[in-house]
Design goal:
about 325 residues, alpha/beta, Rossmann fold, two-stranded parallel ribbon, 13 strands, signal-anchor, decarboxylase, transmembrane
């Protein structure tokens, strides 16, 4: 039986990954300090006999000595605030979890021989000057701005992964995750899909920043989780960085209009100043994921939005 450690297990992506691995028969140990994660995300399986949640900050060196992390086969290091709203409110914790926390978890992998997956981010590309973005692109990141605590911490986390792979042979894999969504996102998360759906269903103004011409690529969470699982289990991915995202590009205004239409909303679309360093374009090249994982997204934006809107509507009843 495979034992997996998931940091950030109570977060949006972590809770979906936890559910997926438990359904596949894994033993799962979740680590989360509940800074932005919510224990309610795990309520469906909190009493599962093969799952244990520990409230712990993985940036604390004591995490390396926990009895529950010994004899791990796989480590998924997902812990980190991911929404600009939350990482800008918690910049030092965001830096620590992606640097010190990454090293702590790599030390566990080194000792146990576990495979190690680090969820980096498309934010590693910053406001890209190359479009779409392949893994070979080195990025255009501002080191002295409000997004730097997340962008640069993730980039340094990748460096730790490289050093542990090159020097010690730790079986690392790095996923650069692009925008992922579903109904599991917090209502106050502040990211595009959760904002638009909540505003549309409440008939509030749908807030678009800038003129809405900036683009994003949205991947439904089930597709993202499957890609992470494949990245972990495939041997040819050791020492590799792989983009995980949907290569179909939409403008933010297009998404706002689609959500408004699908939610049958009376909301007005309003425009607001673009935040500092907000990327103008974002679209992954996924040739590497196709080759190494045999993976590409299966769920269209329309289908994913339909599922998301229905789930949010059920919560409002």
């Amino acid at each position: 039986m495979i034992k997996a450690i998931i940091t950030g297990a109570a977060g949006f992506l972590g809770s979906h990954l936890t559910k997926s691995l438990l359904n596949k028969g894994y033993i799962v140990v979740g680590l989360d300090n509940l800074c932005t994660g919510k224990e309610t995300n795990l309520s469906a399986f909190i009493n599962h006999p093969q799952f244990k949640l520990l409230r712990v900050n993985v940036a604390n060196p004591e995490v390396r000595e926990l009895e529950e992390v010994q004899e791990a086969d796989e480590i998924y290091h997902l812990a980190s605030p991911a929404s600009p709203k939350f990482y800008q409110d918690n910049p030092f914790e965001t830096i620590d979890i992606n640097t010190i926390g990454t090293r702590n978890m790599l030390d566990i992998a080194l000792r146990t021989g576990a495979k190690f997956l680090f969820t980096s981010t498309s934010e590693a590309y910053g406001d890209p000057e190359v479009h779409p973005q392949p893994e070979s692109y080195r990025g255009n990141v501002n080191t002295f701005g409000p997004r730097a605590c997340y962008d640069e911490a993730k980039r340094l986390g990748e460096v730790y992964c490289y050093e542990y792979y090159a020097r010690f042979g730790v079986r690392v894999k790095v996923a650069r995750v692009f925008n992922t969504y579903s109904a599991g996102l917090r209502n106050d998360d502040g990211r595009v899909i959760s904002n638009f759906v909540n505003q549309a269903l409440s008939n509030l103004d749908i807030t678009v920043y800038g003129d809405g011409s900036q683009t994003r690529s949205f991947c439904y969470v089930d597709d993202t989780v499957e890609a992470l699982r494949l990245l972990m289990v495939k041997k040819d991915t050791e020492g590799e960085i792989v983009n995980i995202g949907n290569p179909i590009e939409y403008s933010v205004l297009e998404v706002a209009q689609l959500v408004k239409e699908m939610a049958q909303s009376n909301s007005k679309i309003t425009f607001h100043p673009l935040p500092q360093d907000d990327p103008k374009v974002r679209q992954p090249v996924i040739d590497k994921a196709k080759k190494l994982l045999g993976w590409e997204p299966q769920i269209t934006l329309e289908d994913g939005l339909k599922r998301t809107i229905e789930a949010y509507q059920a919560q409002l009843v």
